[in-house]
Design brief:
- A 5-stranded mixed β-sheet has the order 3-2-1-4-5, sandwiched between helices.
- The mean pLDDT is 92.
- With 196 residues, the protein is an alpha/beta fold.
- The N and C termini lie far apart (81 Å).
- The chain is built from 7 helices and 5 strands.
- The radius of gyration is 24 Å and the shape is elongated.
- It has helices spanning 47-61, 74-81, 84-87, 93-105, 123-127, 133-152, 157-187; strands at 3-9, 23-30, 33-40, 67-71, 112-116.
């Protein structure tokens, strides 16, 4: 297809920066059937990086001469149409660098249109035309598939249990240190030093 929806997900551990493993997806519809690509986020695991990975993957793998891509984050739209150099100074410079290289290889910005879609609006808004129905559907599908990808690449339970064990141990030790410190500070308060 020539129109894509993309999304990224942090999965069930999205609020935990240590255990979070992000998945991403790009979806298009060809001959009435959805086709998708998905994967895991390489390197750091913020959801924003997964969102950008989805767009970069769609641009890299599409063979259509011109495509439109619906994305949920407005910052991606602003960055894509903004100063290219600014994207190469940020924390996701590696992804932007690859995206610009692939974009130039296919003919430049004129071959890809990036459109913002508020995918968290209810389906009735898409049905009634308040938001683009095709964009809403593609982003909805990408959202579900990126959630699936995040589950596939989730940290194994055994490793997550080890992380939680050491977190709990650390918490116990910290509480004991604080309690001991409070006891000694109360038992042996600092002497008052007379003013000079």
């Amino acid at each position: 297809g020539t129109t894509f929806g993309t999304d990224g997900s942090g999965g069930s551990d999205s609020r935990d920066p240590v255990l979070r493993r992000c998945g991403y997806s790009a979806v298009t519809i060809t001959a009435g059937a959805p086709k998708t690509i998905f994967g895991d986020c390489l390197g750091r695991q913020p959801v924003a990086r997964a969102e950008l990975s989805a767009l970069a993957c769609g641009i890299r793998l599409s063979r259509q001469p011109a495509i439109s891509v619906f994305v949920d984050p407005e910052w991606i739209v602003k960055s894509f149409y903004g100063d290219r150099r600014a994207t190469l100074r940020g924390s996701n410079a590696d992804l932007w660098s690859g995206l610009w290289r692939d974009l130039d290889a296919r003919g430049g910005r004129g071959t890809v249109q990036i459109l913002h879609i508020n995918s968290h609006r209810p389906a009735r808004h898409a049905i009634s035309g308040v938001i683009n129905p095709e964009g809403w559907l593609l982003n909805f599908l990408a959202d579900k598939i990126s959630d699936h990808a995040a589950r596939l690449y989730r940290v194994p339970k055994m490793e997550a249990d080890v992380v939680m064990y050491w977190r709990n141990r650390t918490r116990v030790v910290q509480k004991r240190i604080v309690a001991a410190h409070s006891f000694w500070m109360n038992a042996f308060p600092r002497p008052t030093i007379p003013a000079q």
